[in-house]
Write a structure and sequence with these properties.
The chain has about 110 residues and is mostly helical. The protein is built from five helices and no strands.
């Protein structure tokens, strides 16, 4: 998996994060299975814990990968290769404005 990501020429930070997350997921699954076998808890509980951990890890990896790809200068140059510096600045400023937009109590946009 790490080799495939490396060959896709993603930023090295993404490859490192994905490798660490894969190792953490494997360790967490092994620890949960051992703990459940030792405690003899119901199998449904094990499945729920493993699914929740995997979903959280996948969401974190996707967010980190998207942020790394969007903020890397190589990809910004690639996306706007035929445009002027002004268009690049406008696109980057628009991204910053959207990320730092005012949010309400639950993270939704305020009206």
């Amino acid at each position: 998996m790490v080799i495939c990501l490396w060959s896709a020429k993603l930023p090295s930070a993404v490859v490192v994060v994905v490798a660490v997350v894969v190792v953490v997921v494997v360790v967490v699954v092994v620890v949960v299975v051992v703990a459940v076998v030792a405690a003899k808890v119901a199998a449904v509980f094990v499945v729920v814990i493993v699914v929740v951990v995997v979903v959280v890890v996948v969401v974190v990896v996707v967010v980190v990968a998207v942020v790394a790809v969007v903020t890397s200068s190589f990809n910004i140059e690639f996306l706007f290769s035929e445009s002027s510096n002004t268009k690049k600045r406008i696109a980057y400023f628009s991204l910053l404005v959207w990320v730092h937009r005012p949010k309400g109590r639950h993270g939704r946009q305020r009206l």
